[in-house]
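Chapter summary example.
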Amino acid sequence: MVKPGTMLPDPSHPIYRLTDSPPSLTGTTHLLPLIQDSSKYIALFFVGDHTIHEPHPLFQKFASICKPYKANLRPAILARSYRIGGMRKPNWTTDNDETIFLATHTGDTDIPYGLNGKKEMGILIIRPDGYIAYSHPVDLNGNALDTMESWLAKQLVKS
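The structure predicted for these 159 residues follows.
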């Protein structure tokens, strides 16, 4: 994974922001402006080649870990467009869910972040200035999410 203290790399392929309605067909290779939210940190979950159109315990755990820090942290999930079930936010999200959903058409987008571009998953926490504060690969057991939760408890104040 990309090491903490480095600037968030730009992806090598376009990324699209998903909304409730179909997004525009133009993506961007500048990830930071797409996810940046004033003075908040961003928790970016690369879900690899896993499907997000149905609720999954890993996504629910990620969301529940981020929720107490909503004043200081905004969650984002990056998935493959062909695994989303339409270029829109998943049905299991709520209207007040502040998670940013992103899509890419290829696994090659994950490679600059230190992932293999296949099923490998990872978490990046990005500071408001665009530098990476935390990074960790994620397995299907979600053990890395517990590590992320400990890191957040030491670094950020709960809302």
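To summarize the output: The chain has three helices and six strands.
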